[in-house]
Amino acid sequence: MSEFNNKSDTQMLVEKLAYKLQTGPKLMIGDCEMTLDIDPLDEYHIKKAEKELRETPEMVQESIKILCDMLGEEEGLYVPLDEEFLKRFLRPCKFYPRSAFKLIKRFYEYRLKHPEFYEGLLPSNERAIFTSGILTPLPRRCSDGVRVVVIEAGRKWNPKQVSLNQIFRGVILNLEVAIVEPKTQVSGVRVIIDMEGLSLGQVTYFTPGFASAIIEFVQRSLPCRLKGVHIVNQSFIFDMVFAFFKPFLHGKLKDRIFFHGGDRPSMLNYMDAKMLPKKYGGEFDFPDKPIGDPIYEYSCGYEEYFDECNRYGYMNEV
């Protein structure tokens, strides 16, 4: 059984969040402001959604009705049934309601199965990962509307201060904030993983269990269009890390992992120069000074949103 909320509940929560961030301190990454974009789809994204996701007003209403009926019959699962919330799962499933229903179940089952990633998952509890500088969302979208997150998991990562679980918790926070945005729901995200400076000592912290859990999330439980994972500055040491993940990769994800090494021009085949940092072959002035503390303070503005999200899911073990 699902929770029947007022249709505007999710939208009201996101708008309240956006207002709080708009009226509070600004987050500048380089010379560009990082903002939460909850505006309705523009003409470009409306056409893209129709072409790529089968999204038309008629299809939206029909799919939501069917999905609501399916969720209403599911024992122990409590989620909002408003349009804004359900679109987050329908869009990556191209508005096939049965597929969206299965994705919702897998998403909340994963949360239950992996408390190490989700228990107490609030920005205020994750100061270490934010201030480490390992994770940085880029403020500009790609020209195709895709959001980009940079993970610097080599030189900036001190395993004694930030665990792999903490890194992944930070990734989840970034992704869940990204999918609040309608344009990101339509266009998706790309991830840049910078392995410069990875050491043999860091490799020892990886395990097959951790790799399996990460791939399970990305391939089966992520309510987001993952458009690509771009590995840069990798050395032979990275091959040892990738060996943990490779056995679990299949299908689309396997085809969307790209290895660039030090080949900067190749990055421009996937991301345009104006939003890509100079150190990856673009034109954007990525800041040299630490920006972890401002990102942490900015992220804490999302606290109410994540607290609300933690209310939903399976109330009993599945």
TrEMBL record:
Residues 122-288 form the CRAL-TRIO domain. Pfam families: CRAL_TRIO (PF00650). This is CRAL-TRIO domain-containing protein. GO terms for molecular function: phosphatidylinositol bisphosphate binding. The gene is 100122607. It comes from Nasonia vitripennis. Gene3D superfamilies: Alpha-tocopherol transfer, CRAL-TRIO lipid binding domain, N-terminal domain of phosphatidylinositol transfer protein sec14p. GO terms for cellular component: membrane. CDD domains: SEC14 (cd00170).
